[in-house]
Amino acid sequence: MGRIEFWFEFASTYSYPAAMRIEALADEAGHDIVWKPFLLGPVFNSQQGLTDSPFNAFPVKGRYMWRDLARVCARAGLPLETPARFPQNGLLAARCTLALPEAARAAFVKAVYAANFADGALISEPAIVSRCIVAAGENPDAIMARAGDETIKAELKANTEEAMRRGVFGSPTFFADDGEMFWGNDRLEDAFDWLAAPLQIMSIGGTR
Amino acid sequence: MGRIEFWFEFASTYSYPAAMRIEALADEAGHDIVWKPFLLGPVFNSQQGLTDSPFNAFPVKGRYMWRDLARVCARAGLPLETPARFPQNGLLAARCTLALPEAARAAFVKAVYAANFADGALISEPAIVSRCIVAAGENPDAIMARAGDETIKAELKANTEEAMRRGVFGSPTFFADDGEMFWGNDRLEDAFDWLAAPLQIMSIGGTR
């Protein structure tokens, strides 16, 4: 049936529950997921002049976010531990996502998010990323080597630029196949509802 | 049964659907609402150094917000029009909320949000605020006069300071009677669920 684009940065906290939940929702509705890794650092910097996560730059928001994330994960039945570092450097994992065959991406992405947020592991470490590649049924040496190719580096850079061009300002972001954009784990169900039947919006911003 | 504190700034976009929805949810569950107007300007300025709404300061977030708000309002069956100005100055309306008897506050607050977001009226105008006081069944001259009292001005100032002390960084914010904080229209149902039965949180941030 439809297609949903899932744009994600591995460091992003609320992208963890979204990544763990999206497959079941897509399978249930018979939709395909397009996995779109990108880097949030350049986006935050370019759009808001930030050099750190807004949750670190504004501690009052960070304190609330960790508590809220704990509630969200408790509701979703997901384990949550303090990450080894926040935000983590997700560059290697993002490149490996693109280096993997499409069929292996879902398992890899979930393994990396679990390493970050359920295991408290350092996802910038090649040994941790390798373990996630193995969990996805692929050969870590081959994928790691491919992740260093210029074409993969360029693809990740192009993803980040495309994200900004399309108005992405955070992670997770979802696009329905008509281009409608949804931001945040809280909007995942709405994005699937939209794929099934776009809302009739008669007010401001309404185009249909 | 329980009590939910509803902290709100009249300029805030997502506080509009929250204000229009909260009474039905509270009534259904048999909970009381404590109406807590405060000013978001000093909060944004003190915590994030902002001198305007973040939706204006960062246009990419603003563009998404207006579209998302249109979807949220469409789902909730609420009309939405372009406000006369964004953000509006809600000082007079906030003071009038505190000048009103508690029983009249719900109707007044909803009338002001509707004036701002459904009618596109200027809620800084005394004539508009007076109309909202009438809608709440009270005498506008008496309430307007009371809104200028030093005690009312001091109460609004104290609300804003209390909000910051308790970690509020946006509107709408809800507190359950055990102090659990919820931010955003998206968390309104969660706040009521929490009042009925707090989640068991075993992960980070867990205190129970």
TrEMBL record, chains A, B:
Gene3D superfamilies in UniProt: Glutaredoxin
CDD domains cross-referenced by the UniProt entry: DsbA_HCCA_Iso
Molecular function as annotated in GO: 2-hydroxychromene-2-carboxylate isomerase activity; glutathione peroxidase activity; glutathione transferase activity
Alphabetized InterPro entries for the sequence: DSBA-like_thioredoxin_dom, GST_Kappa/NadH, HCCAis_GSTk, NahD-like, Thioredoxin-like_sf
Positions annotated as active site in the UniProt record: 12
The EC number(s) this enzyme carries: 5.99.1.4
GO biological process assignments: glutathione metabolic process; naphthalene catabolic process
Keyword Isomerase: yes
Catalytic activity: 2-hydroxychromene-2-carboxylate = (3E)-4-(2-hydroxyphenyl)-2-oxobut-3-enoate
Domain DSBA-like thioredoxin: 4-190
Isomerase among keywords: yes
Keywords assigned: Isomerase
Enzyme class: isomerase
Family per similarity comment: Belongs to the GST superfamily. NadH family.
PANTHER family: GLUTATHIONE S-TRANSFERASE KAPPA, GLUTATHIONE S-TRANSFERASE KAPPA 1
Protein name, as recorded: 2-hydroxychromene-2-carboxylate isomerase
Native species: Hyphomonas chukchiensis
